[in-house]
Design a protein that fits this description.
The complex is a heterodimer of chains A (358) and B (803). Chain A is an alpha+beta fold and 358 residues long. Chain A has twelve helices and twelve strands. In chain B, 26% of the residues lie in helices and 26% in strands. The chains are: A alpha+beta (358), B alpha+beta (803).
Chain lengths: 358, 803
């Protein structure tokens, strides 16, 4: 038995001194492998007397089991320390900055147009578009601007060179010609919104030669100023995201509507800061009115059968008011700092479910 | 137009206060822009009397004044030449803010003598231009009383008139509208004829050809002799000053006053400078006239003048002439009151660049009845202020019939206005506005508009008149009926533009908005076969051509950013480019550009400058976002489908479906960048949204059935050697075509050119994914596909498998 005990002690010492998994495997093979020492002793059992064989076999099995357990335990310990060592070697400075990625943004003009469309879509409005270069008929005559009327001059029109027949095209001075085109093409009832670029020959602190408007038009058999008021009141509250927003409809004049109105919303001006909402002051926000019968007739719609209302608003103006953008001219400067400051993330999609703005 | 409250009350008998009047004006369409109250600024200023004025010991021009406010007497150093004992003026005391400068007055020493206040001039108080001396008040005002009271200051109402409101050009018209809104009653005005005592030596000569007689249908004149062109009385000067006009002399001031009071322009000529009869005629081409504003104008033959026998004496309805104008020496005047064609006056004023109150009235359309009435009112006022006697009137032409007769259905008030009003109320409003309802018993009324409502043409105008006086606030709000099922507001095309915007923002490009126009020199660099669309009247010479491409403005934007030390720029815009000057000759384009570093220097990423494949990726991302199957896109290679000239010829391309070019991309040509004075490299792209095939509307939103293969896919790598000039895309297409069922994907993972392959060749390595659908692939099947791939590549592009 001394021999067995000696083997046991030797093997236990080998296991505990194995420095790594490879050395430990060498110990395992030396003990339990095909040519291992315990295996060799097992083979010798065949030549023994049955009684001796039984006793020696039992003792060997005990030893074998013990060594296997110790090997497993040592293996687990070595594995653990090996992972610990690996993890220790793999430590990084997590405070380092991540790999760069650039986020693109949307311009306030396109975002604002989407917000407005989102408000009017449930009311059954469809978006219509028209050309930037227009003819005199669609931009003026059909909209009831008589030739030489002072209102025509007020539009500061950009013209293209005259043609052989002395007519000349122009850059549309408003989005109203889209009304005419839609009425010419489509049978009523009509509910459209027409956003787009518009142009006037004027450039100063509050005017740019190009700007954006959104035109709204409703044509139906039964439609009146009460509907117009409700439509506008709902719009301004939804757009400015206010439960209460006073509105004021003032009689005004546009050649293409009659009766005409300008709409003011409530605001307060304190210490040079403008705040939209109930307050002591009024702020003009848009123009509107019942479509002039001459416009309906010029567009091929019978003014005795159909009526309608129209409204028009400046995209930059309402964007400036809502988002506190102070200077109109900066909209067209493409200054990256400005775009990052006032732009909208690609995922900022205005919806009625998720809200118009964050 | 501006007027004061007391002026308004000359015409309107009312108890309403300023705020009610102001609110009502806005509510009935005469928008009050501002109520200026000069009293507020002078609240602390008082009347003071100069008790004594003595010479300043150290300054010849200064006086030492003892000034009394009734309570206190203070010492004031004053430089005004009119400072003298007994004068009552306006005293500013330390702490008061001088309106003209905005400075707070302090006690100070002037040339060693203490001054405890300041006697003010009119200009210092913003009450006129007079700065020759201090204000002299009437001697009966009491020292110590409020200066604002003593100066009879009152609020000035400034109304922004819409171009249609010809009737409200005068204070009387405003009063009439307020009376219609039941804010008071309109006072009568005396327009009765002033009895003439002699015959005017000057007669009216209507020198217009018959065809043009409508340019001045009515001309009324009168000589008034024995006048004294004195200084106007204080009340008249105060009113003119209050509304921002400068009093000149009584005759001039009276015509200015009536222009504002009644919206009736008049002109007074000095008869001593006229010869022969006076009247309207067309100017002769090149005729010159020295106008009252000191400028000489050269007229054209479509302009109207008032002429005597020697020549033009006034530009009719626009401005009088200097030589025949009234001066201090004038003792006899010829008063002219006429009616002119609005369009002629507007065109003349615009062509000569003259802005005047007369033009403003005439081009909008003056009340034809006021020609006669205005002459009488003015005559009466001249005689009252300047003395003298009037001749009988001399008249040319007649007042035209103006004032439409309109068929009016009162039911339209409810139809268009949405408000229920009874017939009596409607009729009363119309009557208060001066309309005559000639018959009102049926559903259709006959209504005659008054002469001052030249803007009224039809029924809709009457609807507006009634509604505005009744009040827009009284219109009940009624929700617009909504559709039962809401549908998308955007068309497919519009939706795709929106998706492209968000897709490009997702690529890291920022959206911008640039002008639709640019400089001709920039447009030239992006010229196509179409000729440039030039503006006739550009806002400036560097914005004179409609853009033929979105790129030049984006490149300029990159240049501006670089100048602000931001050289890594990635921008895009979705907007039109212009191909012709007719409506519709424009395409919707998503254009973008990148400049500078795509990846900046970073501890864990290698820095990289933008290249053509960034632009290609952007274009592909935009196309893929709107449903284009990008693997079907080809690189355009024909003459018509190749990239345009503004790109680098070796680093640019197009993305096509057959002959249809959906996008162009590339590195910008160095000479184009040089021409625009912007540093490169810059890469860009343009995606033509209008050319993208319409999405196919299938049966509905349902997708096809999901049927994943249950068999193991296999990947095999290949490397081919092919000629350097063969597009790799052609090879990939050949590989895909080798077995359209089994080959599920082809990924290119290496392109090698160098000393390990022979000159003029490149090695291209691909990974091909085989996805069986029926059974696991056998070795033989894999071998078969592989040899078909090799054969296809050899056949299509002459590529050899590298072993």
């Amino acid at each position: 038995m001394d021999q067995l005990e000696q083997l046991r002690e030797e093997l236990l010492a080998e296991v505990s001194s194995a420095a790594d998994l490879q050395a430990l495997d060498g110990v395992r093979v030396g003990a339990l492998g095909k040519k291992g020492r315990i295996t060799a002793m097992m083979k010798e059992l065949g030549g023994m007397e049955p009684d001796a064989r039984k006793a020696a076999g039992q003792a060997l099995n005990v030893l074998k089991g013990e060594i296997a357990t110790v090997l497993d335990a040592r293996k687990a310990a070595l594995e653990e320390s090996e992972i610990a060592a690996r993890l220790a070697s793999e430590t990084v400075d997590v405070s380092l900055p991540v790999r760069p990625s650039t986020e693109g943004l949307l311009h306030p003009i396109s975002q604002t147009i989407e917000e407005v469309v989102e408000i009017f879509a449930p009311m059954g409005f469809e978006v219509a578009e028209g050309p930037d270069i227009e003819d005199d008929f669609h931009n003026f005559t059909a909209l009831n601007f008589p030739p030489d009327h002072p209102a025509r001059e007020m539009h500061d029109t950009f013209f293209l060179p005259p043609k052989a027949d002395d007519t000349r095209h122009l850059l549309r001075t408003h989005t109203s010609p889209v009304q005419v085109r839609v009425m010419q093409d489509k049978e009523p009832p009509i509910r459209i919104l027409a956003p787009g670029r518009t142009y006037r020959c004027d450039y100063d602190i509050t005017h740019t030669p190009m700007f954006h408007q959104i035109e709204g038009l409703v044509i139906d058999k039964v439609v009146h100023m009460g509907h117009l008021k409700s439509c506008i009141i709902e719009f301004v509250k939804a757009y400015f995201e206010l439960d209460e927003l006073p509105t004021r409809f003032r009689p005004s004049y546009f050649p293409f509507t009659e009766p005409s109105a300008e709409v003011d919303i409530g605001c307060s001006r304190q210490n040079g800061e403008l705040k939209i909402g109930a307050g002591a002051d009024w702020l003009e926000i848009l123009g509107c009115g019942m479509v002039h019968p001459n416009v309906l007739s010029a567009s091929g719609i019978d003014p005795n059968e159909y009526k309608g209302f129209a409204f028009g608003l400046g995209v930059e103006r309402i964007a400036m008011l809502k988002y506190g953008i102070p200077d109109l001219r900066t909209f067209y400067d493409s200054d990256l700092r400005w775009l990052r400051h006032y732009g909208f993330a690609a995922l900022d999609v205005p919806t009625s479910a998720g809200g118009l703005s964050r | 137009m501006k007027f004061t409250l007391s002026w308004l009350k000359d015409h309107l008998d009312t108890d309403s206060d300023l705020e009610t009047i102001s609110d009502t004006l806005t509510a009935i369409g005469l928008e009050v822009e501002e109520v200026l109250d000069p009293r507020a600024a002078l609240a602390s200023f008082v009347v003071a009397e100069i008790v004594s004025a003595e010479q300043h010991p150290d300054a010849d021009r200064l006086k030492l004044c003892k000034v009394s406010t009734g309570k206190d007497t203070v010492q004031v150093v004053c430089g005004a030449p009119n400072a003298r004992a007994g004068l009552k003026g306006v005293l500013a005391r330390p702490g008061d803010i001088i309106p003209a400068t905005g400075d707070k007055l302090k006690k100070g020493k002037i040339r060693g003598v203490e001054s405890q206040g300041m006697m003010c001039s009119a200009s210092e108080l913003l009450l006129g231009e007079d700065d020759d001396g201090i204000i002299e008040l009437d001697s009966d005002v009491t020292a110590g009383t409020s200066a604002a009271d003593a100066l009879a200051l009152e609020p000035v109402i400034d109304v922004a008139l819409t171009p249609n409101r010809v009737d409200a050009l005068g204070v009387r018209g405003v009063a009439r509208d307020l009376a219609a809104a039941e804010l008071g009653t309109l006072k009568p005005i005396d327009t009765s004829s002033v009895a003439g005592t002699f015959d005017s030596e000057i007669s009216v000569a209507m020198r217009l050809p018959d065809a043009d007689s409508g340019l001045c249908p009515h001309f009324v004149g009168r000589t008034i002799r024995g006048v004294k062109n004195c200084e106007s009385p204080q009340w008249l000067k105060d009113r003119l000053t209050a509304v921002g006009l400068r009093p000149v002399s009584a005759l001039v001031d009276i015509t200015q006053y009536i222009n504002i009071d009644l919206g009736r322009p008049l002109h007074a000529f000095d008869t001593s400078k006229l010869s022969g009869d006076v009247g309207p005629r067309l100017a002769t081409k090149g005729e010159k006239i020295a106008a009252l504003n000191g400028n000489e104008y050269t007229l054209s033959s479509d302009m109207l003048v008032i002429a005597d026998e020697t020549g033009a004496q006034a530009i009719a309805g626009v401005m009088g002439g200097e030589p025949s104008s009234c001066t201090d020496l004038t003792t006899e005047v010829f008063l002219e009151s006429a009616l002119f064609d609005p369009i002629t006056i507007a065109n003349t004023g615009r062509a000569l660049g003259i802005v005047s109150d007369a033009r403003y009235c005439f081009e909008r359309g003056v009340d034809p009845a006021s020609t006669l009435d205005g002459a009488e009112v003015a005559t009466r006022m001249i005689i009252e202020i300047c003395g003298g006697e009037a001749s009988h009137l001399v008249v040319g032409g007649v007042a035209p019939e103006i004032g439409a007769t309109v068929s009016f259905r009162p039911a339209r008030i409810k139809d268009l206005g949405g408000v229920v009003m009874d017939a009596t109320e409607i009729q009363q409003i119309l009557a208060r506005l001066g309309f005559v309802v000639e018959s009102a018993d049926s559903d259709v009324w006959t209504v005659k508009a008054p002469t001052w409502r030249r803007d009224v043409e039809g029924e809709h105008d009457l609807v507006e008149e009634v509604l505005r006086i009744h009040g827009y606030d009284a219109i009940p709000v009624e929700p617009l009926p909504r559709p039962a099922v809401s549908k998308p507001a955007f068309t497919d095309d519009q939706r795709r533009a929106g998706i492209v915007r968000r897709a490009l923002a997702g690529q890291g490009l920022s959206e911008t908005t640039t002008w639709s126009f640019l400089a001709a020199s920039d447009a030239e660099l992006f010229a196509t076969s179409a000729s440039p669309v030039v503006l006739q009247n550009p806002i400036s010479s560097d914005l004179d051509v409609m853009r033929p491409s979105l790129l030049p403005n984006l490149i300029s934007a990159a240049g501006r950013n670089a100048a602000r030390a931001m050289s890594d720029v990635a921008l895009f815009e979705v907007g039109p480019r212009f191909e012709g000057d007719a409506p519709g000759e424009q395409t919707l384009v998503a254009g973008g550009m990148r400049a500078g570093q795509k990846t900046p220097r970073h501890w864990n990423a290698s820095a990289r400058v933008v290249d053509i494949f960034d632009a290609k990726a952007d274009a592909l991302a935009a196309l893929e976002a709107v449903g284009v199957q990008v693997e079907r896109l080809q690189i355009g290679s024909s003459e018509t489908s190749g990239p345009p000239t503004w790109y680098h010829p070796g680093q640019s391309g197009t993305l096509c479906l057959g002959p249809n070019v959906l996008a162009e991309f590339g590195a910008l040509h160095p000479l184009v960048l040089k021409g625009m004075d912007v540093d490169g490299p810059i890469v860009g792209f343009e995606v033509f949204l209008d050319r993208i095939p319409k999405p196919k509307r299938k049966s509905g939103p349902a997708r096809s059935k999901f049927a994943p293969s249950s068999f193991q896919p296999v990947e095999r790598d290949f490397a081919f050697l092919l000629n350097d000039d063969v597009p790799v895309d052609d090879m990939i297409r050949a590989v895909r075509g080798a077995d359209k069922v089994l080959i599920a994907g082809v990924d290119l993972f290496d392109v090698y050119v160098g000393d390990k392959v022979e000159d003029g060749k490149k090695s291209v390595a691909l990974s091909v994914k085989l996805e069986p659908t029926k059974a696991t692939l056998t070795d033989k099947e894999i071998e078969d596909v592989s040899s078909r791939i090799v054969a296809a590549v050899e056949k299509a592009v002459g590529g050899q498998l590298r072993k």
